[in-house]
Amino acid sequence: MATLDALRVFVEVVRVSSFTAAARRLGISKSLASKRVAALEAELGVSLINRSTRKLHLTEAGRIYYEHGLRIREELESAEARVQSVTSQPMGQLKVSAQVSFGFMYLAEPTTAFMRRYPDVSVEILLEDQRFEPIDESVDLAIRMGPLPDSSMVSRPLCKVVYGLFAAPDYLARVNAPPVQPQDIRAFDTIFYGNYDLGAHWRFTLNGQPFDVEPESRLVINNLLGVVEAAKAGFGLAYLPTFAARSAVASGELVPLLQPYWNEHGSMVVLFRSRKYLPDKTRIYLDFITDWFREHLQL
Question: Phi and psi (nearest 5°) for 21?
Answer without folding.
Answer: -65, -40
